Amino acid sequence: MNKTIVLLLSIFSLISCKTSEVGILVEKGLLIQNAQITSPENQTMSPDNFIVVDGDEIVYVGKDKPNLKGSFTIIDARGRYIIPGLIDGHVHVTGTDALSDEEELDNPEIVKKFREQLPKSYLYFGYTTLIDLGTAKPERLTDFQKTEIRPDLYYAGGGAVIGNGYGLSNWKDDIPNFIYQENEDYPIPEKYLKENHTPKAVAERIAASGAIVLKTYYEPGFDPTQPRFPTPSKALMEELKTEAHKNNLVLVVHGNSLEAHQFLGNAKVDIVAHGLWNWGSHRLDSTNAIPEEIKQVLDVEIENNVGYMPTLQVINGLRELTDSDYLNNPELEHVFPKNLIEYYKANSNVMYANVFGGAPKNIIATNFNRISNQGKINLKYMFDHGGNILFGTDTPSSPTFGNPPGYNGYLEMLEMEKAGVPPSKILAMATIENAKAFNLDQLYGTVESGKKANLLVLNKNPLQDITAYNDIEQVIINGIPFDRKTFSAQKGAE
């Protein structure tokens, strides 16, 4: 950030004028006047403010009119609402949504268009900061970072996977970040030295990569007819947490089942990367009551202040494979290139079969609606009882076109409101609470001096109307304002 700001306060004008003037000297900046600032922390509105941006930093917020010296772009925000840019705490900016590695190789032009559009799709829906929670293709992170206009991107460094466990896809690396766990009967290639795969060694390696998150997994598997994946022991998870915190890393753990959440809540991990929508042997019935065993697990997570990401769109995104009309949604035209939508339409039945085999679509849709409702009911319970709820979408979560970048975040918000979470809480989760959870609150989460100038200008009040996030007038990224339409895939197709 530009730290060469000179703030000149005039004592005489403070005494003699009803509206005092604050002198601000910059070479080139941005002035937002008549700004109605929405506070995510206390859920209030502060009208008639001035916001001054120098470079990519907010240098002044207040009601006193600034006496500007320099070249300024001016936005008159009268009648609109200013909020900090949104933070999606769980994305993957790696492959092309729903395309396998082989399909990517066979369709280079589709991949090219998608990669070019990806940062814009997130910005179109107001996501100015992303946390990538794991990729098998680190070079894609680098490619994303090279894009001139993009969300700020943070990441987990390779994933601290339990050796031979779920999520391990990097055996080809010289020193992959798997964790060697004693007393597990599984083969690890002899070329890997045990001392390179302790929690200490892996945490240090991840921190050195520039990551802010240590991501691991508690996933025994999805098919009960298959052998279980190895999962971390209580002692190992405690050691991982200790080493993560020593290296200023946030410990985020994949888990979506009753077994996983029970273990992770008791382990007091920082964040569980999914909601508890897999209830094991329990099923949601017509009473919509949460089974006592599920409540007890949620209560432990609440008591231990474990971050809880509902990730409702994981289930909904898979369900969309059953909907023959989904790809006609006009919103998709803003976030997917036209040639990719055409590819999806031509291959939707194959994509469905790749995930669900020959199962009837109506049965899959019914089951996934039930699981989705289980997730929403749990979310409402967490909200009603003071749980530490964070915003993340897991975009894209699986080989489906039902998790569109950017738009998936808006859909997650709509689902949260359906679950009974008010818009004011959703705003806080997607801004200041995410910023605090990932130790980024010195830069993001509120509209105040010293923060990064990533802002949204909305046409509706986000404290009252969740559709405000699909009525964005301008996106300000790194202090530069853009009309929202700039980021539409339709614009790129012109």
From TrEMBL:
Taxonomic source organism: Flagellimonas yonaguniensis
Name of the featured protein: Amidohydrolase family protein
Gene3D superfamilies attached to this UniProt entry: Metal-dependent hydrolases, Urease, subunit C, domain 1
Source superkingdom: Bacteria
Domain (Amidohydrolase-related) ranges: 81-479
